[in-house]
Design brief:
Distance between the termini: 54 Å
Number of domains: 1
Structural class: alpha+beta
CATH class: Alpha Beta
Strand content: 25-35%
Order of helices and strands: EEHEEH
């Protein structure tokens, strides 16, 4: 088992000093996804952060999370735009 640390940078930074013992890098990725879901649920429009999974002083995984302000233009339907180009 390896100890992994889950650090958050951004508007509300958090330095994980305890870490968590996990089986491997894949288990750390799954744990990071769970943490990211909780973080995303607390973000407000225009905020963002980065979750870094560290082990033995090296970066194992990184997840960037950003939100757009509510006045930002909506994403367009790529299929519709591609059809109009043909």
């Amino acid at each position: 088992m390896t100890r992994y640390f889950f650090n958050v940078g951004g508007i509300r930074p958090f330095q994980d000093t305890l870490g968590e013992e996990l089986f491997d890098d894949n288990a750390a990725w799954q744990a990071a996804l769970d943490i990211a879901r909780h973080i995303v649920a607390s973000l407000r429009p225009g905020e963002g952060c980065r979750l870094e999974v560290m082990s033995a002083g090296r970066l194992i995984h990184s997840i960037e999370m950003t939100t757009k302000p509510s006045h930002a233009p909506a994403l367009v339907d790529c299929d519709t735009n591609l059809a109009s180009l043909r």
